[in-house]
Amino acid sequence: MSARKIIIDTDPGQDDAVAILLALASPDELDLLGITCVAGNVPLPLTSKNARIVCEAAGKTDVPVYAGSKAPLARPLITAEHVHGQTGLDGPKLWEPQMPLAGGHGVDFIIDTLRNHAPGSVTLCALGPLTNIAAAFNTAPDIIDRVQEIVMMGGAYFEVGNITPAAEFNIYVDPEAAEIVFRSGATITMMPLDVTHKVLATKPRVEAIRALDSRLGYFTAEMLDFFERFDVEKYGSEGGPLHDPCVIAWLLQPALFSGRHVNVEIETSSALTLGMTVADWWGVTDRKPNALFIGDADADGFFKLLTERLARL
Ligand code: BDR
Ligand code: CA
Question: Which protein residue's CA is at the shortest distance from atom 4 of ligand 1?
């Protein structure tokens, strides 16, 4: 079978970085057409710099990296340096990337790529606020039917919120964009906090990555050393949750995950619950399912896959 064509839309972020590395390490299964950056964890100049650092760390500098939207569709940007550090990628020693940004806007790249490939042959992997994807759908509604699937990290139901008591960060930053995507009719698989909080980079799991004894292994372990601080302190958990890599792991080994097709609506107006993903998990409404909501994962299987793939870089 030929490799599945994907675009990664991202705001790196240590967990975004691990997701990108997992994709770059899996060329037999995933054909990464390009990376589009969005403002989120840190402002756009940093996310688009970090994505190139990650490609260089993996020695894969032929993937085009585009800068996309610098602010949410209708709101000022909210960032998460308190989680990811001032650079967004705190932990390892960083460098000025040599790789240039690809010319053009990330949103145009998404539109052109979907128009230039056969309908149903390109998957969008969304690891940050959904601004770029919603902007592409707004500008070129013809591309919506051409999307194979959107696999995204965002939202929560039983876990509720991480940035507010009710909302997960990616959706909270740009709820209007999330609403456009969830109402678009595109096929959506979502990795909410309900599953990502079960995929923890515990000490032994990080040590297994460090024990690869490669430049990339140390780079990844150092990112995860930094990343775990926040969640360990906040939740008392045993390590940082690898939110975004769940998106890529789903494409590689869907059997690691389980979930339900449910209706998900986005709260865009309440001051109290802005950005909440209202998931009809129990089927108590007649609203049509619009997303596969993943609720559980085989975390050991996930880390086995991740470590084995990182060893290839
Ligand atoms: C999401 O927000 C960001 O901080 C992470 O990179 C992830 O995409 C988790 O809520
Ligand atoms: Ca992210």
Answer: 41
